[in-house]
Amino acid sequence: MSAARPAIRPPAPGRPLPLAIARRIALAAQGFTDRRPAGRVDRRHLRRVIDRVGLVQVDSVNVVARSHYFPAYSRLGSYPPLMLDRMAYVDRELFEYWGHEASLLPVALQPRLRWRMERYSELWSASSRLTELRRRRPGYVDDVLAEITARGPLGAGQLSGIGESGGSWWGWHDGKIATEYLFAAGLVSTASRRGFERIYDLTERVLPPAVLATPTPLPEDAQRDLVRVAARALGIATEADLRDYFRLRPADGRARVAELVEASELRPVAVEGWRAPAYLQPAATAPRRVRAQALLSPFDSLVWERDRAERLFGFRFRLEIYTPAAKRVHGYYVLPFLLDDRLVARVDVKADRTASTLRAQAAWAEPGVPEPAVAGPLAAELIELAGWLGLKQVSVGARGDLSPTLARAMAGGTMPLKIGADRVGHAER
After folding, report:
1. pLDDT confidence of 14, banded at 50, 70, 90?
2. Cα separation of 162 and 97, whole Å?
3. What CA–CA distance (Å, rounded) separates 75 from 197?
4. From the CB of residue 277, how many other CB atoms can be counted at a distance below 10 Å?
5. Can you tell me the distance from the alpha carbon of 217 to that of 237, in angstroms, rounded to the nearest whole number?
6. What pLDDT is recorded for position 421?
7. Whole-number pLDDT of residue 426
8. What is the pLDDT of residues 303-354, one digit of tens each?
9. Which of 208, 212, 189, 211 is nearest to 104 (CA)?
10. For 127-172, how does the pLDDT look when each residue is reduced to its tens digit (9 = 90+)?
C-alpha cells in the first residue's frame, strides 16, 4: 500500500474546488493511486479493488474480455480472472444481482438490496411479459421454482417445458422469463455460469448462512448504506452521480444524500466548471500528483456515468456497440486510455483469438494531447493487455489520428510481446 495521502484543504469561502483536485480525488477513490503488486497478484489485491469500487458491472460483450474481469486488470495489471470467478461462485465472497445494472457485489451488501428485490418482484408481477405468461400458463412460475428446488442448479434452458423463444435478442422463452423474475425477486441466485449463461439455484443454497441470517434493514437505512458505498468509491460526486452508482430512484437518492449531509457524512462543495452541487466524502484524499497508466473497460466505474466522465476529464464517451457500423465515430468496442490524471486517448480493440492477435483497429488522441507523448505508453499498455489475454502479438489499424504514431511505436504496426514490463500506477506525494 502507498503512504498516507495528504488531506484535502477546503477551498476559500465562495471559491470552487479546482477541477484538477477533483480529478485526483476521484482517481484515488477508484484505486488508481494504489501501488500495484510488485509480484504475483493474489486474492488480497483483488479484494482491495472490490472494496475500492464497491461492485463491478457484468456484461455479455466479450470482444476483449468480459467486463467484470477488466476493472481489476486496469488497477492491478495481469491477474488470473479465474480468481474472481472463484470468489463469486466457489467461496461466495461475491454474488450477482442488479447493482449498477447486472453486477458482482460483496455478499455483505445482499441484505441492503432486499428492498430492491421486493420492489422488483412487484414491478415484474405488473409487467406485460409476466402477466401474459401467467395468463397462458397458470402456475408455471411456481413449477419452475419447484423444479430448481428439486433439481437445481439449472440453467433456464434446462428447465422442463420452456416453450419457444421469440427469436429476437429479447425474445425470451417461458423458462427464461420465469427465471429472470425469480432472480429479480431474490428467490433464486446465480450459483455459477456456464460460459456466460446463468446457472440458477435457490438463494438459500447459494449465499453463506451468515448473510441469510442478517436482518433486513429498512429501505431507507439500506439506501443510505448504498450511497455511503458510492461516496467512498467516487470520492467527490454530484447527487446524480451518487444515486446512479446503485441506480437509485431520483427521489430516494435525493433524500438519502440530504440525510447524509445532515449527519456530516457528506460535505457539500462546489467544483470548478460543474453546474450541480457536489458532495465530498470526508475520508477522501487528494494526492499531489497521480501517476497511472491503464486501459479501461467501457463499463468501468470510473467512466460508466458518461456525464461524470465529461465533467471530470473533458472526455465525451459514448458506447457505439448498438450503433450501425457506418455511423460509428470511434468503433465497436472502444477503451479509454488513462495516463496520469487524464483520459488522453481511446482505442477500438478486438481480441482476435484465432490469429492470436490483439487488434488496435483504430486509435484517437484527445484534443490538445501530444500524440508522441501518448503513443509510447499506449503501445506498452496494448502489449501488456495482449499478454494478459494470452495473445502473441499486437497489430495497429489505419483508422484514427493517433494510429500512425502508435504504429511507429509498435515498430511498424506489429511487434513481439514483451510480457512483464513494469507498469506504473501510484501517486507521488
Report:
1. low
2. 23
3. 27
4. 13
5. 25
6. 35
7. 35
8. 999 999 999 999 999 988 888 888 998 999 999 999 999 999 999 999 999 9
9. 189
10. 999 999 999 999 999 999 999 999 989 999 999 988 776 545 456 8
Strand partners, 97: 103
**From the centroid of its chain, how far is CA 335?**
13
Percent share of the chain, pLDDT over 70: 91
The Cβ of residue 292 has, within 10 Å, a number of other Cβ atoms equal to 23
DSSP string, 21-40: HHHHHHHHHTTTTSPPPSS-
Grid cell listed for 236: 467527490
Please give the single-letter amino acid code of residue 361: Q
Q: Which of 133, 99, 104, 103 is nearest to 116 (CA)?
A: 99
Span 171-195, average pLDDT: 94
Give dist(CA 15, CA 153) in Å, integer. 58
**Grid cell listed for 197:** 449463461
Closest CA to 248 of 302, 300, 305, 203: 305
Amino acid identity at 317: F
The residues with which 268 forms a beta bridge, in sequence order, are 279
Q: Three cell numbers at 119?
A: 420492489
Instruction: Kindly report the backbone phi and psi dihedral angles of residue 202, in degrees, each rounded to the nearest multiple of 5, phi listed first.
Output: -60, 140
Do residues 53 and 233 make contact, with C-beta atoms less than 8 angstroms apart? yes
Return the ∠ at Cα 17 (arms to 277 and 279), rounded to 5°: 35
- Starting at the edge strand that comes first in sequence, how are the strands of the sheet with 94-99 ordered? 56-57, 101-106, 94-99
In 3-state terms, what secondary structure has residue 138? Answer: coil
The chain-wide mean pLDDT, for the chain, equals 91
Strand order in the sheet with 342-352: 414-416, 393-399, 357-365, 342-352, 334-339, 289-295, 425-428
384 by DSSP, 3-state: which?
helix
Cis status, amide bond into 153, omega within 30 of 0: yes
- The DSSP annotation for 297-361 comes to -TT-TTTSSHHHHHHHH-------TTS-GGG-SS-SSEEEEEETTEEEEEEEEEEETTTTEEEEE
Nearest-angstrom CA–CA distance, 286 and 427:
9
d(CA 118, CA 341): 41
Quick check: 363 and 347 in contact, CB under 8 A? yes
Distant-in-sequence, close-in-space partners of 395: CB < 8 Å, separation ≥ 6: 357, 358, 359, 360, 410, 413, 414
pLDDT at 51: 97
Distance CA(20)–CA(27), nearest Å, equals 11
pLDDT digits (tens, 9 = 90+) for 289-298: 999 999 999 9
What the block records as the C-alpha cell of 147 is 423444479
